[in-house]
Amino acid sequence: MDYLLAFTVGGGICALVQILLEKTKLLPGRVMVLLVVTGVVLSFLDLYQPLVDFAGAGAGVPLLGFGNVLMKGVKEAVDTEGMLGLFSGGLKAGAVGTAAALIFGYLASFVFKPKMKK
Question: Which domain covers residue 72, as residue numbers?
């Protein structure tokens, strides 16, 4: 049942984003920023964690989840370091995921032949 919930919620998020991309003139980069900011706002309002508890990876993996991770890091850092945590918290919290994406992307470039768009 956990897999079904994760698939349904994650797929619903992806479907809504696809509809947003096709029905508006927003560029993909702006939609990605919108997703991260939405995750931050939902986390700030304490609405995102109940969604993660309900849907698991279906809510934690999309870009909304990245915004949630950034907000959690900022909250922790502000609690421990004060206002300086506004600048360091998100970077510390998101560093592992960002580094993993860069490393695995680089490794994938050896397996597959990357080409420039024409």
Answer: 2-111
Mean pLDDT per block of 10 residues along the chain (118 residues) reads 90 92 92 93 92 88 87 92 89 90 91 79
Q: Is residue 117 part of a domain?
A: no
Task: Tell whether pTM > 0.85.
Answer: no
Is 38 part of any domain? Answer: yes
Integer Cα distance of 93 and 76 in angstroms: 9
CA atoms within 13 A on the CB side of 60: 13
Half-sphere exposure of 86 (CA within 13 A, CB side): 3
Burial (CB count <10 Å: 0-12, 13-18, 19+), residue 115: exposed
